[in-house]
Amino acid sequence: MATSESSPLKVEQEATTETDYSDLDKISTEMEQELDATENSDSDLDEISTQGVEVNIAIVGKAGSGRSSFVNAINGERVGMASTGNQPVSYSRSANPNINFSILPNINQETHPAFKRFLESVEIEKFDAFLFFTAREFNQWHSIFAKKVESSNKPFFLIRAKIDGDICPEEEIDEGKMIEEIKADLADNLKVHFCDGYKVYLISNKHPDKWEFYKLAKAIADSLPSPQKKCFNRIPKDLKELIVWQEFQSFLKETDEKEKTAKIARIFPSVRDMKQLFSKCGIAGMQRMMNEKLEGWKNVKINLAILGNSGVGKSSFINAIRGVDDGDKEQAAETGVTEKTKTPASYGHPTNLNIRFWDLPGIGTPDYPNLPTFCQKVHIEKYDTFLIITAKRFTEYDLQLAKKVESMGKSFFFVRTKIDNDRRSELRKKGFNEEKMLKKIRDDCVENLRNFSFGEEKIFLVSNHNPAKWDFHRLEEAILEQLPAKQKEALTLTMRTDSKVILREKIKLLKGMYDDIQGNQVKYQ
């Protein structure tokens, strides 16, 4: 459950005061500074508004369920070990001591009377939210405790930690399928100890950029009253970036006008200056201006062609670059080594269907025996950029296609996939050195392309199952840089990525949105 709060902009519906806009340029830099400033770089206004405010979070679970590691991860610094005694152990972040995480005594396989005494000793009213952790399944003690918390009208969250522990980097597994299996097992588990309708957050404390760590942090913040929420949101900048951009994507998907108005404040960091804008042009005018800007880029069409032979990882790449799990039955491109593509197949981005990724048939097949036939049948002129994929060596057809695309003045990229498989094989050898392995693969690709004068800058080494490693982010950034301005803007705002370069570009685009609002405010008075 989450505590409701009114929009911070609600009071501005009747504002009519004339405002001085001389310092509005400062606002356009605030989100950029979030990436570079230290954690105590919040505005003076926010500092004053959170003075004396405390946030107390109770963390519940068995020993070894990932509680202390979670405190480390969300604080961005090292703390001590979890409680093993009879008293809660409290940790607070040095940059903001008003946020306290209390790791309660372990919930192990105790007798019911012992657990009852423990539960009676917990001062539920002193905590703002409760986090229930497990590294495998929830048990009756979680359920009994959670029901008591719920009866006290306190928010609580169910968390399955150590997801990274289910993924062995030395084994080939379908991560999407594995996640679906974990969710199915948890659903059965909840039917026994809870009931349907409860959300379980899947997280890794070692990799807060993956799975649902940022969704959990956002949900905790949203469950708190306004002062505590503002205080809790002073979290490490890497996590804050993920939450900010998740908020932005959610905003774009909303259709309810009142909800849109409420969420504008979450996009722009200074509520005070947004109030000034509202006093000038009103809520209706602000909504129209935001809609003009936002809907404009969503109408831009982009077609990205994905090319390569059977088994090179085209489908997995299409899923990875769209942020879709291979196991997603509704949105994922079907994966497998058998050639699935007889005709071009398109996959829209989950948050923007005008951005489409096309899985094209391989050249040299009976239906597409040569380059001219291929270009004619797939209507090569319709695509905006081309990603040529291989898991070993690029073929003569790949190189001919690149030359053809180059002659059309369009961008193309050579993508060498399955680097994780190469690493797994090399790990078995004595004296394994990852840098040497990557250099050899890259050098082999350069030699493969030498006769066509394509250099190293066109080559990207990626793993579709681990896009945070190797060249995946560099590839995303390169694709954006080669697109025309309008398409670059649309793809930047759509992409699901934790690339710092792209996040910074999103901030610049938000600055542009703000400038549009400032420049057009008189128009909508």
Written account of the structure:
Keywords: GTP-binding, Hydrolase, Nucleotide-binding. The protein is an alpha/beta fold and 525 residues long. It has two domains: 52-247, Rossmann fold (3-Layer(aba) Sandwich); 300-494, Rossmann fold (3-Layer(aba) Sandwich). The protein has 19 helices and twelve strands. It has helices spanning 30-36, 44-49, 67-75, 112-121, 140-151, 175-193, 213-223, 226-232, 237-253, 257-267, 271-298, 314-322, 371-378, 396-407, 419-427, 434-449, 472-482, 485-494, 500-520; strands at residues 55-61, 89-93, 96-103, 129-134, 156-160, 200-202, 302-307, 345-349, 352-359, 385-390, 411-416, 459-461. Strands 2-3-1-4-5-6 form a six-stranded mixed beta sheet, sandwiched between helices. The protein has a six-stranded mixed beta sheet with strand order 8-9-7-10-11-12, sandwiched between helices. Strand 10, helix 14 (396-407) and strand 11 (411-416) form a beta-alpha-beta unit. Helix 7 runs antiparallel to helix 8, helix 7 (213-223) packs across helix 9 and helix 9 runs antiparallel to helix 10 (257-267). Residues 1-50, 79-84, 248-271 and 520-525 have low confidence and may be disordered.
